[in-house]
Amino acid sequence: MAYAPSVDTVLRRVLISLTVLAVLASACSDDSDQTTEVDTTSTTTAAPVADVDTEPEPEDEPAALPNYLDDLGDIPVADNDASLPDIDPDNTAGVYGFSRYVYQRAPGDAILPSLIEGPQGLQTRCQNVDQDCSYLEMKAIYESGEPVPDYLGMDRETLGTLVGQLGETEAYLATFENIDDACARGMFRASGQAANMGVHMYDNSAGSSFDPGHPQMVLFAQEDAGNVDGNCSGGEWSGDGEAYLPVGVVFNIRQTDEHPDAFAGDLDNWHIHFNLCQGADIGAVASQEDCTAAGGQWTGETRSWMMHAYVAPDYDSQGGVFAMFNPSIWPVMDQADLEENLVVQPDDGAVAAPIANFDFGDIQVAAGDTIRFNNSDSVPHTVTAGSSFDPRTDDFDSGLLGTADTFDISFDEAGSYDLFCVLHPEMTGTITVN
Ligand SMILES: [Cu+2]
Predict the structure, then answer these.
(1) Taking the chain, what is the end-to-end CA distance rounded to the nearest angstrom?
(2) Distance of CA 367 to the CA centre of its chain
(3) How many angstroms is it from 408 CA to the middle of ligand 1?
(4) Residue 303 domain flag
(5) For residue 344, how far is its CA from the centre of ligand 1 (angstroms)?
(6) Domain at 53, CATH number
(7) What percent of the chain has pLDDT over 70?
(8) What is the CB neighbour count within 10 angstroms for residue 12?
(9) What is the tally of structural domains in the chain?
(10) Of 20, 202, 281, 409, which residue is most buried, by most CB within 10 angstroms?
């Protein structure tokens, strides 16, 4: 996919809104100088971009598979599901709602962590628009009695439990006609109207445990996806309450070191936000110093696990019931366009190529573009030419990439170039240069 270089206005709005939800601030992990030097062995230049020689080499023999096992111990990894690795990245990394980590550039040029999502290691993600992972789609699969698709990663009984839990959530959501009902129940507004998400209305009576029939927040949205026109006042919405319809819910439960095992199956990848800056005009992610200096309120970490569930039948989520963003909620858009907005793009014109959940993604670039691979996973990977059967380390090989490490490469000639990960040989991909 040729990712759009546009600035992620969707994210910005969402993050601004979510700052309100952050209750407890705490220091995030210390920075360290630990970075991995990327080995750009394929060229004779010292430039950071490996400019690949695309001349065929008819007589060359397959290179030996590099052995990186001895160096694995040098790569920093997180202590548990709720923590960040002890790193100080040089570059941005990640995809909102699709990768384990997101690191983005903050004012003052610092690269800061902004999101953890899902457990460490390989995650179960069903977010492809071609897969049936929305609430209505999974319900239909279960009710049809047809075999459960492999990509759901669960057996029929588990799917039944999940659909039942989501049914409880749907029934709860259906008790709200509009946002006036939230005000009448003593809930309060905890965000603006985040794009493809909605206004977060918080319910203190929900506590901090997981109950599919009583989430901590309900999302309301109106067609004009801009600013909200009111607040709860005297048990009703001060603006046009009838315009705000219930579109989904958000769970916000007590933080544990281990990722929650809440909904049946493993499709629910819960998240934690970091370095949120609210009320300042410097962006939604900033350091404490910059945020405070700009008059904002800084939250180092939302000390909870959060999860969206889009169970309103009229707003079925094509990126899955547990997606962070729902393109069926205003501003309505295609899932593909939404996803393009979620990739954290480098700010120097390089094309982001996130490695997310053991997947290189679909990389399509123009000749001469700088492709910047970034590891958004919790485990190390490599970006290596060829395949495990035919490694072409002389063409390119990143060496070990820890979390948020990057590897730049560019191609002068159109064509398709195979790559794989030395540590996970089943991880293969193709770079298409047009
Ligand atoms: Cu790998």
Answers:
(1) 12
(2) 28
(3) 17
(4) no
(5) 20
(6) 2.60.40.420
(7) 85
(8) 15
(9) 1
(10) 409
